[in-house]
Amino acid sequence: VSEKVNNFPPLPKFIPLKPCFYQNFADEIPIDHQTLVRRIYHLWIFYCITLGVNLIACLAWWIAGGSGANFGLALLWLLAFSPCGYVCWFRPVYKAFRSDSSFNFMAFFFVFGAQFVLTVIQAVGIGGWGACGWLAAVTFFGTSVGAAVIMLIPAIMFTFSALVMLVCLLRVHRLYRGGGGSFQKAQDEWQTGSWRDPPSREAQFSNFSGNSLPEYPTVPNYPPGGRWP
Asked: pTM, whole model, 2 decimals?
């Protein structure tokens, strides 16, 4: 088996940094669930784009007479949530499907659930949160129509992100429970320390010696198909 070289993020060669993660949907994710994991990955990309659009909208908001604090918070959300979203909720669900890790499933449910709640708050657009949601955009029409129209764009994108997050959360939970997952299994992984670097399915299949047949790993009996609920 060839050595796996980190390939994400795909940095240009002139940058003196190397990728931090190895990511290969075709080789590491079961074929029945590759579509779902890819969609969660694309959701992360879309949310990062939404944060960038929100930053531009907050700048228009500030120029038209809004608070500069919103622009500062929008910049903070973009710089913080873009990498943290990948590390804290996409990587756990990727590793969970890669190696049937209950601990990573639980980590995904906890962090992604918090991300969903935050995205709903951003879509609402409470003042002083650095998010151009519906409330902020609609109430600003009386001050500047042009800026308010720009602010509506991230409001729509935040709303779409929240809806897709809810669908993904329900979909992954249904697959996990359908495969026999439980909180007890996550506790067992924590106690044994196997959550730190769970082996891939390929490694589990190749982990045998002698003349005996390999002891195949327990593969979760997830419901087939990648259809959305």
From this structure: 0.81
